[in-house]
Amino acid sequence: MVVSMFDYTSALVGIFAAWSMYATLYGKPSPFRSWAENSFIGFTMGLNLVVTAWYVWNTGWLPVTRGDWFPALGIVLGLLMVLRLFPRYSYISRLPIAISLGANLGLSLRTRITTAFISQITATIVPLLSPAGWYQSLVNITVGLCVVFMLSFFLYTTEVKGPLRIFPKLGEYALYISFGAIFAQTFMGRLGLFVGYMQEITTPAWKIPYALGFAVFILAGIMIMDRYGVLEKYSD
User: Fold this and answer.
1) How far is Cα 230 from Cα 222, in angstroms, rounded to an integer?
2) What number of other Cβ atoms are within 10 A of residue 134's Cβ?
3) Looking at residue 1, what is its pLDDT?
């Protein structure tokens, strides 16, 4: 199998950087993790700078050269944000920042009201007995009861007494179950990313020796530096 120099180099750098990131599982800072984190942050900042400059060029400067002067306003406001770096004129940057935050807030509220408010309420207003069958009816009843229990848990204006005092406790348990499900879903998603990347660095087969070699090299290096007390010294 013929592998180009670019693919070969990028695969080796990616494998070494990945194992360096996972060095954080050792429980102590290490120069491998510091190098990987700093490289990732630097590469991300550089990539964002290039993509942003390309976006400003295509959507800002080129339309201005064609006679559309409205994008020039965005360019000017963006340049005014740079004054944030100069204490004497930093107050001027408040204007473009306020415009940007206000516009983003208005655009996000336009969609959030529907997705996070109206849609959530609509999803709970369902018939308890569904014509789709007993399973869907059980789901609808569970959703309706859990909504009532959870809302009673957040009822702070008055104390729930009598037979209804069990509702807040059931709502608390329902919240625990939902938070646990969200955490489990997040963990499974991260685990899926890990498995996917392990498949990436072991496919094709010529990557396997390098993946195992770098893993042993980094682990051994961390253990040796920790043994001689120089691990934290070179981890900045």
Assistant:
1) 9
2) 9
3) 65
Bond prior to 168 in cis (omega within 30° of 0): no
Radius of gyration of the chain (CA): 28
Q: Tell me which residue of 153, 186, 154 sits closest to 167, measured CA to CA.
A: 153
Neighbouring residues of 203: CB distance < 8 A, sequence distance ≥ 6: none
CA of 168: how far to CAs of 43, 81, 161, 214, in Å? Answer: 49, 49, 10, 53
pLDDT digit string, tens, across residues 96-130: 999 999 988 888 888 888 887 888 888 888 888 88
Sign of CA dihedral 211, 212, 217, 222: positive
Alpha-carbon distances of 118 from 65, 121, 130, 136, rounded to whole Å = 44, 5, 22, 22
Residue 158 confidence (pLDDT) above 80:
no
Task: Choose among 228, 224, 236, 184: nearest CA to 26.
Answer: 224
Q: Half-sphere exposure of 217 toward its Cβ, with a 13 Å CA cutoff?
A: 12
Token reading at 76? 């000017």
Q: What is the pTM of this model?
A: 0.67
Give the H or E element holding residue 159: none
d(CA 3, CA 192): 27
Residue 211 to residues 11, 18, 165, Cα–Cα distance (Å): 10, 10, 58
CA atoms of 134 and 62, how far apart (whole Å):
61
